[in-house]
Inverse folding.
């Protein structure tokens, strides 16, 4: 009798352990990307899901909107003046399957694409155009970042340059142009 009870208790504990490893509850904002024997099986939505222990592996993905801040990006304008740009990117994961299988680290990939886009956009403009064309630059940045990030399952909500700070050399260029403008007016 005691031996039977002990066997039943051990079997119950093993079954409870296996059951605790097979069931997972996903909140509304999370998805699970399931791999069965190393191959992509499916994306698991919110609610209760099961996984076969040692056969299935699941990566949990948060689909809520995130904000990525990039500060002090060194950028060179068309006339070779150095400026420092601060950037904010608002994004969310729209395709968990692509986010897991196409990029090892979506945030680092997004940073690299955004940095290149900022350098390309600002590098085409003169220093004096940076303030007046900020909406144009932001739209261009969003378009170029969105086209690349979509391949990794990211949805870009917005890309904005928050601040542009000129370097000492850029300030010297501004001062020279202001002095030239005053000299022309004074000589007329």
């Amino acid at each position: 009798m005691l031996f039977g009870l002990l066997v039943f208790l051990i079997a119950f504990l093993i079954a409870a352990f296996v059951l605790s490893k097979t069931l997972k509850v996903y909140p509304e904002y999370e998805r699970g990307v399931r791999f069965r024997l190393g191959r992509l099986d499916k994306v698991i939505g919110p609610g209760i899901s099961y996984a076969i222990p040692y056969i299935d592996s699941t990566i949990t993905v948060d689909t809520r909107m995130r904000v990525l801040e990039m500060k002090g990006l060194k950028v060179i304008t068309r006339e070779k003046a150095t400026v420092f740009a601060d950037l904010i990117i608002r994004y969310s994961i729209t395709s968990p399957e692509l986010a897991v299988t196409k990029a090892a680290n979506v945030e680092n990939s997004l940073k690299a694409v955004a940095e290149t886009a900022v350098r390309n956009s600002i590098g085409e403009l003169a220093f004096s155009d940076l303030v007046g064309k900020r909406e144009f630059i932001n739209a261009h940045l969003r378009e170029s970042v969105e086209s690349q990030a979509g391949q990794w399952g990211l949805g870009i909500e917005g890309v904005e340059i928050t601040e542009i700070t000129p370097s000492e050399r850029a300030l010297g260029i501004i001062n020279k142009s202001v002095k030239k403008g005053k000299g022309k007016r004074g000589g007329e």
Observations:
- The beta strands are 23-26, 30-36, 39-44, 47-50, 56-62, 66-76, 82-93, 154-166.
